[in-house]
Amino acid sequence: MTFNKDESAGYLANHLARLFARELQARIKPLGLSTGTFPALLVLWEGDGLTQRELIEHLDIEQPTMANTLTRMERDGLIQRRKDPADGRVQRIWLTDQARALEGPATAAAEAVNADALAGLEYEERVAFQATMRRIIATLQAPVGDRGIPARRRAESA
């Protein structure tokens, strides 16, 4: 059996992600943002004051990658790290006014990329595509022994 990249879900998902990232980068670069910092900003725009560990859990990325991203964001004036008043060993990440002001233009750019990318799909196809991606993500985030078991059946057996 020969591997066919055009029939590989992983290859196609990776290719699609790179195309999305390229389009998003072109639109947010004028704002001084990058696709490396954008996911962290999305989480922090929902509610800042998180710890690095909490961001790692939200974003499903490795600790060294998150540390480098936060260093760049701090350098670029997007975040401030402050000690937690209840536990001085913990640092919390807070958005700066500069980062807050970028939320509207940056999310509008992302919405435009999504609209352009999905323009060839009917509404029902878009909904199904997004639902399928969420299910695949949930499958890959589940413990290995639970994979292949639909989430609703896992919930019923718990």
From TrEMBL:
Gene3D superfamilies: Winged helix-like DNA-binding domain superfamily/Winged helix DNA-binding domain (1.10.10.10). InterPro entries: HTH_MarR-typ, Tscrpt_reg_MarR-type_CS, WH-like_DNA-bd_sf, WH_DNA-bd_sf. The keyword rRNA-binding does not apply. GO terms for molecular function: DNA binding; DNA-binding transcription factor activity. Keywords: DNA-binding, Transcription, Transcription regulation. Residues 9-138 form the HTH marR-type domain. This is Transcriptional regulator, MarR family. It comes from Thiorhodococcus drewsii AZ1.
